[in-house]
């Protein structure tokens, strides 16, 4: 087979295999327009390197020396232009910004700002306004925000949402004056990328109940159950996406329901936490009551019913009797509580006489 015939056969084979590069190279050779773009790579001593590994190693060494240069000692002296160019330096209008955002391609790797096109398009009105303000600072005020994402996403404050709060959240524990850890998923189940999740936060301040649930399609990923905490009786509602700039939020809904007044049910495995008697802010007379069902053969040791962390207030059962402690004073009941039976108990505190009674 002649040289031309061999090239023709290779071109046909490349066309059948849809190998565009090989087909183009063969056509250039057949038409006499082919130019070999590669030149020999020499070592520092001037010897030609024949193997691919040697050539790549030499190129890496060469560009390391070329690119890793010390900055020039003398800065370039560039004189100002004698006449200004007719360049529009005003911030672009919002319509033009929105048009450019719509033209961005999806499913592409984000740039240095780590913001994909999908995130900008998720709420295009907000993205347009953010970029409009950003361009205004750059073009009109000559102020370049290196971390402009954080400037818009976080409030610059000390005790409100800000960098300090973000750092406190990262520690996953309580940080004085910033965050209080109420509950943490014991399994620490991570969320997967490009996966939709539904989460619910339920808070009943009148009862001191909190609950967090996370679902993925029909599967329940996390359920905290009802957490009893009376320290939070209101406040702001918001969402933190810590170090997850690619997260897309949708259908964020909230509602305030009527106040609920009902008894707190504890099954023995759950419990509530109280600080101390003064933090509860109870200055008047009060009654603590409930129904209990003690198992057969229950322990004679101290079984707390309601106790503060500092133990300055505690309603407990010991040796079958009901006891109430306020400060250093302890009042005990006279009736042995039966087992395997629902029994109503009550502890009544009289603030005027500073006396307590177990019923």
Automatic annotation (TrEMBL):
InterPro entries assigned: ConA-like_dom_sf (IPR013320), Thrombospondin_C (IPR008859)
Gene3D superfamilies in UniProt: 2.60.120.200
GO terms under cellular component: extracellular region
Entry's Gene Ontology BP terms: cell adhesion
GO function terms (MF aspect): calcium ion binding
Any single Pfam family the record assigns to this protein: TSP_C
TSP C-terminal domain residues: 154-261
UniProt superkingdom: Eukaryota
Protein name: THBS2S
Origin species: Mytilus edulis
């Amino acid at each position: 087979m002649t040289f031309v015939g061999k090239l023709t056969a290779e071109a046909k084979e490349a066309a059948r295999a849809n190998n565009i590069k090989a087909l183009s190279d063969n056509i250039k050779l057949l038409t006499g327009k082919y130019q070999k773009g590669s030149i020999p790579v020499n070592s520092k001593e001037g010897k030609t390197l024949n193997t691919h590994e040697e050539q790549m190693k030499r190129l890496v060494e060469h560009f390391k020396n070329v690119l890793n240069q010390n900055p020039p000692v003398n800065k370039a002296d560039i004189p100002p232009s004698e006449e200004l160019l007719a360049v529009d330096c005003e911030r672009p209008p919002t319509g033009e910004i929105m048009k450019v955002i719509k033209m961005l391609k999806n499913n592409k790797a984000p740039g240095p700002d780590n913001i994909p096109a999908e995130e900008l398009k998720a709420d295009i009105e907000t993205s347009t306004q953010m970029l409009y303000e950003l361009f205004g600072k750059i073009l009109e005020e000559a102020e370049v925000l290196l971390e402009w994402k954080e400037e818009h996403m976080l409030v610059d404050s000390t005790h409100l949402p800000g960098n300090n709060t973000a750092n406190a959240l990262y520690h996953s524990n309580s940080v004085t004056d910033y965050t209080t850890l109420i509950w943490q998923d014991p399994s620490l189940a991570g969320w997967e990328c490009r996966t939709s999740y539904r989460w619910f936060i339920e808070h009943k301040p009148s009862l001191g109940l909190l609950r967090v649930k996370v679902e993925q399609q029909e599967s329940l990923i996390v359920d905290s159950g009802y957490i009893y905490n009376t320290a939070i009786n209101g406040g702001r509602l918001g969402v933190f996406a810590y170090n997850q700039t690619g997260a897309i939020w949708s259908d964020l809904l909230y509602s305030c329901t009527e106040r609920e007044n009902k008894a707190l049910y504890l099954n023995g495995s759950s419990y509530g936490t109280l600080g101390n008697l003064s933090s509860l802010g109870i200055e008047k007379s009060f009654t603590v009551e409930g129904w209990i069902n003690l198992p057969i053969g229950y322990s004679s040791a101290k079984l707390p019913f309601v106790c503060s962390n500092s133990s300055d207030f505690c309603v407990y059962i010991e040796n079958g009797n009901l006891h109430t402690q306020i400060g250093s004073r302890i009042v005990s009941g006279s009736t042995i509580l039966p087992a395997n039976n629902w029994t109503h108990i009550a502890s009544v505190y009289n603030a005027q006489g500073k006396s307590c009674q177990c019923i």
